[in-house]
Amino acid sequence: MNEQNFANHHRYAKGYHFLLSSLILIGVIASIVNVARHSPDEGDYMSTVLIALLFICAALIFWFMRRFPLKAQDRAIRAEENLRYFILTRKPIDNRITIGQIAALRFAPDDELLPLVDRAAAENLSPTAIKKAIKNWKGDTHRV
Question: Which key words are in the record (predicted)?
Fold first, then answer.
């Protein structure tokens, strides 16, 4: 794997992010169109509604299947970066720092971390701005 940097740090599972999401989106749209085209008086109307509900359920599963593990990873990142900051300063990280900012700060090496935390808290830097401010990128290949 190439050295990680701002330009290449995003990770995508092509089958999940592109193929499966496209198929579910197409299924949701097609099933809703199918429900709209059928009359409740027709015999197969219940089947069209059930298919639409299944695709909507699949879309929700797809969404939450990604969100829940990311929330758990965010908690782990928060704990790791709080510990790293505490080791460097003997103080807890500023409570104005958001989880998005903390996740961005994990790419900063120790010598860049403290000034970036101060800037992020004072200027309310976005995660993207924090990542762009890092001079010597510290890769994180463990995040899914």
Answer: Membrane, Transmembrane, Transmembrane helix
